[in-house]
Amino acid sequence: MEVIIRPDEDAVAELVARMIAKELRANPHLVLGLATGRTMESVYARLVLMHRQEQLDFSLCRTFNLDEYVGLSPDDPRSYRHWMNRTLFQQVNIDLRNTHLPNGQAADLEAECARYERAISRSGGIDLQLLGIGRDGHIGFNEPLSALRSLTRVKALTPATLAQNAPYFGGVEGMPRRAITMGVGTILECRRCVLLATGPDKAGIVTKAVEGPITAMVSATALQLHPRCTVVVDEEAGSQLQGADYYRWIFANEPEWEDYRK
Ligand code: F6R
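Above: the input entities. Below: the structure tokens describing the complete assembly.
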């Protein structure tokens, strides 16, 4: 795992957008794993700007999102499909047929989960997976006690996640209680993982995820098993990291990060 600490949320988004742009320019057929949520908003806004100002080309790129609520239609503004369409897909030149989210309205949810796994495999696997982190340590909707080798399946959302996302639904009452999510095992199969976290509310859980013991109680700790995982945080989210000085030294000195220091 590598940890990069940037001054603020804008700098985190800028760095991650540049990482994605670099990979996409090197491989226009890139298979991108995407997440939704507040943390991703500024990353996608930057990708949209790069598309408009620097001709960043998404025409051959394929995407797989981590998750979708059970029961919401793609036309429902609260669904992740709708959120992705308006936040990114409709703002760049991606072919919507190349964008994939689990179908939360499938009659047979188990079959839908298996289909989603097959679709990821058939695409050749995910090259770069973007991840946020929930207050309970979830990645995707892999809530505490998710098996570390789990595949795409339906998960019931914890009270912490319901509270975190309730503002999008005008309160917990109106929220779906279940979601389809890629499993922790699905995420560990991706060739590269990039987890972002910003703001003081994430400081405690980021420290557990990066420096704590691997445990199914905090799904994000499984990323410590991934051979190529980069965690990008702002000063606030990184404020409790014990190894912060060491992480800063690596970012300031290792050639891999030279382009990103400017
Ligand atoms: C959403 C997802 C979640 C979020 C996480 C953080 O697709 O996979 O794991 O990344 O809940 O959400 P924000 O960024 O809203 O704090």
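Note for the figure: Residues 2-261 form a domain with the Rossmann fold fold (CATH 3.40.50.1360).
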